[in-house]
Design a protein that fits this description.
Helices cover 32% and strands 23% of the residues. It is α+β, with helices and mostly antiparallel strands and 97 residues long. It has a single domain, classed as GMP Synthetase, Chain A, domain 3. Strands 1-2-3 form a 3-stranded mixed β-sheet, covered by helices on one side. Helix 2 links the parallel strand 2 and strand 3. The relative contact order is 0.23.
Length: 97
């Protein structure tokens, strides 16, 4: 029997993508873990994974909003990963669907 505490989790990028899909229903979405590119930088954890991400997202939720407001929607959806899972930086490429 597997418990919630011992069940394997999907990779962090996949779980982040799930959260973005639930919050913003994007027409297109890509979440890439680019932590390996930031080794030795602030926030890097030494593993090359789980700290620095690139989010490419196209969503109708961005319509009529300035870039800062679009990015805020993405950050709000990903706040649990920033607060509790060691995500240090998120680069965002947001476009309107």
């Amino acid at each position: 029997m597997t418990t919630r505490d011992t069940a394997p989790q999907a990779p962090l990028a996949d779980r982040m993508a799930d959260a973005l899909r639930a919050a913003l229903a994007p027409a297109a979405l890509e979440v890439l873990d680019e932590s390996w590119r930031h080794e030795g930088h602030a926030g890097a954890n030494g593993t090359g994974f789980g700290t620095h991400f690139l989010v490419r997202i196209r969503a109708s939720a961005f319509a009529g909003k300035p870039r800062v407001a679009q990015h805020r929607l993405v950050y709000d959806a990903l706040r649990p990963f920033i607060d509790h899972e060691g995500v240090h930086a998120i680069a965002i490429e947001a476009t309107v669907a």
